[in-house]
Design goal:
It comes from Afipia massiliensis. Pfam families: gag-asp_proteas (PF13975). The chain is of the alpha+beta class. The protein folds into two domains: 41 residues; 122 residues, Beta Barrel (Cathepsin D, subunit A, domain 1). Helices cover 29% and strands 39% of the residues. Strands 2, 3, 4, 5, 6, 7 and 8 form a seven-stranded mixed β-sheet that branches. The chain has a three-stranded antiparallel β-sheet with strand order 1-10-9, with no helix packed on it. Strand 6 and strand 7 form a beta hairpin. It is elongated and about 80 Å long.
Amino acid sequence: MMRGLTIIAVVVSAVGFLLSMSHPVAFASMKGALIRATDQTLNTRPTRSVEIARGDSGEFTLRAKINGVSTPMVIDTGATSVVLTYETAKAAGLPLELLDYSVDVETAGGRVRAARLTLDRLSVGKLVERSVPALVVPRGQMKSNLLGMSFLNRLESWEVRPDKLMLRGYP
């Protein structure tokens, strides 16, 4: 049995060698197709990724869902946490009457006090995270929601390029 397999391997190798010598272009094409097919087969793990184009303002803005409610957000790698405006928190049905605004936060607009809470579910495209720590600021204190590091640190990776930002979740 082993001898038969060895003979077949030698014959296949010899035929491949002869084909590569007599038809190098066809062989190169077949070789490339085989490599691509093998590479695609080996890399079949599902990817959860989102690509965000840089806006005209230079910011990466997107629509996220907080507990199923769609809202605009700005990606801010300088923000330790996800930060929501009061209005967004209210729209998402968060328990605003129970919040304690006792956390000092430094924003681009100055210091503000915020309240800690945990988001049941925060999703950006195919990326879904549960129990995400977040902050809520009082009404009128911020204009934009920030997608900060309390979400980004949960991802497998994120990569900034000149014109886009790639977010990759774990498979």
